[in-house]
Design a protein that fits this description.
Immunoglobulin-like; 2 domains; six-stranded mixed beta sheet; four-stranded antiparallel beta sheet; 1 helix; 16 strands
Length: about 190
């Protein structure tokens, strides 16, 4: 009975595992996102570390190859670089400029003959809050009774696009929308008489 316990203990201590996976829950498409994978190899030799976005490989570190790091740009994401140490790999990605949610997986494999694999996945959602407050323009300094005015409310870039509502005396008003081609601003125009 003691012999079986010792064998089990040895098998557990020689395993490799991912100890920490860091993937931002939310990412802004205007700024790079940093993904990191920390692992423990114990007495096994590292074969490779791979990163996937959904099912597509985006990064590979294989210390026995020259160069050891390979980047794979796939539709919807740009890999800006990466760096690996003996127990971790960090990858910098530029999220796509569309509101999406994707799974990011770190896969750590050992050398043969067994080629054991440890894998963990986390999800990242691309969203962006406006950097600037909304701007209202078109308001005259002086307004005569019955005079019509046109007001514009412009919102800075955001994902998903901002939803602009106009209220007059606590009543929601119908507005016309204008989306710029560069997706930088959203403009809502209102016309009314005072």
């Amino acid at each position: 009975m003691k012999f079986i316990s010792i064998i089990t203990l040895c098998a557990i201590t020689s395993a490799h595992e991912i100890t920490q996976l860091k993937v931002p829950l939310y990412a802004d498409p205007r700024r790079p996102a940093v993904l990191s994978c920390h692992f423990q190899m114990d007495d096994q030799k590292l074969h490779s570390v791979k990163w996937y976005r959904d099912m597509d490989e985006i990064f590979r570190y294989n210390p026995s190859q020259k160069p050891p790091i390979r980047l794979f740009n796939v539709t919807g994401i740009m890999v800006q670089g990466g760096e690996c140490q003996i127990d971790s790999c960090m990858v910098k990605v530029m999220p796509p400029p569309v509101a999406t949610r994707a799974a990011y997986t770190c896969e750590v494999s050992t050398e043969g003959p067994k080629f054991q694999i440890a894998r963990q996945t986390k999800h990242m959602t691309v969203v962006a809050m406006p950097d600037l407050d909304p701007i209202i323009s078109g308001a005259p300094k002086v307004l005569k009774p019955g005079e019509q005015i046109f007001l514009n409310c412009s919102s800075d870039y955001s994902l998903p696009p901002s939803d602009i509502n106009w209220y007059i005396d606590n009543e929601l008003q119908k507005v016309s929308w204008e989306y710029s081609n560069s997706a930088i601003t959203i403009v809502a125009t209102i016309q009314f008489s005072w």
